[in-house]
Recover the amino acids of this structure.
């Protein structure tokens, strides 16, 4: 094989490898609260997690570099329970670009406060078929699939179904490990088990369809026709009131509010007074503890 052909083969292999990855993630591990211990374990943990998230092929979807989903996983170590066991919390965020603009909209903005895990220094974290090596691997893989599910739902109706199924499979496997925290849907309505049960609840499919309407028919049309796009987006929101009647919708409403409430208020700035009042009444009913964030709608 001549040198030019070798370079071409290497270039094609690199292109295939790049397209195989769906996430452009930044994983950080903050261990400032932990004193008098081996600090190198947190450095290797952070490096292993960045490698895991950014090089795992989560699906057969081929995304170009500029299509990779921007997201962050921020881990704060709260306590070192033993040499290799830790109690932490995880803050997960993901964003999606809005068509024909420089604006990115938040899709996920969630804090997981029940996150205990084991990690051995220099251990490699990787996905294996139908098995999980640790709660650390399971938790990060779960949220990686949730990020993908929300993103794909925002671009096509029910487009994220594959990733919800993969997250559900991870949840089922994780719940079989009795010592892993944060999974049981019976103990906590904010657990990962509760989250994926809600997203895969057939009666809550309209919630997923709302994600498509909000993003693809609303935000993505803002540049071309802002008035029509704003009307479409705001007119879709009353569906949240009906979805609230489904018991498992509570966590989805919280996640939607955490990601979208400030954005909705900003979009409604140019709506008329009557539209603002209707929106204020709707959102105040859905998010009574977040009423301070709705104050601009009263102007």
């Amino acid at each position: 094989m001549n040198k030019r052909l070798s370079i071409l083969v290497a270039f094609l292999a690199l292109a295939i490898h790049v397209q195989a990855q769906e996430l452009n993630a930044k994983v950080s591990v903050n261990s400032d609260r932990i004193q008098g211990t081996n600090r190198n374990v947190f450095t290797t943990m952070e490096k292993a997690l960045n490698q895991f998230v950014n090089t795992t092929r989560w699906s057969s979807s081929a995304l170009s570099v500029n299509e990779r989903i921007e997201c962050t996983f921020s881990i704060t170590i709260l306590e070192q329970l033993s040499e290799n066991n830790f109690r932490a919390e995880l803050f997960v965020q993901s964003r999606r670009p809005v068509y024909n603009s420089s604006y990115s909209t938040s899709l996920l903005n969630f804090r997981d406060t029940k996150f205990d895990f084991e990690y051995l220094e220099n251990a490699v974290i990787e996905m294996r078929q139908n098995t999980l090596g640790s709660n650390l691997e399971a938790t990060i893989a779960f949220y990686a699939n949730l990020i993908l599910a929300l993103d794909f739902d925002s671009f096509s109706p029910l487009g994220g179904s594959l990733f919800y199924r993969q997250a559900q499979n991870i949840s089922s496997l994780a719940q079989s490990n009795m010592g892993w925290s944060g999974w049981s849907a019976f103990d906590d309505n904010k657990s990962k088990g509760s989250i994926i049960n809600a997203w895969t609840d057939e009666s809550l499919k309209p919630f997923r369809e709302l994600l498509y309407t909000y993003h693809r028919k609303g935000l993505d049309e803002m540049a071309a026709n802002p008035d029509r796009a704003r009307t479409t987006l705001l007119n879709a929101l009353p569906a949240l009131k009906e979805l609230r009647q489904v018991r498992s919708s509570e966590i989805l409403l919280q996640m939607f509010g955490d990601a979208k409430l400030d954005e909705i208020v900003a979009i409604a700035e140019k709506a008329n007074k009557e539209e603002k009042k209707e929106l204020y009444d709707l959102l105040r009913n859905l998010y009574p503890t977040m009423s301070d964030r709705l104050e601009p709608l009263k102007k």
In short: The first strand starts at residue 23 and ends at 30.
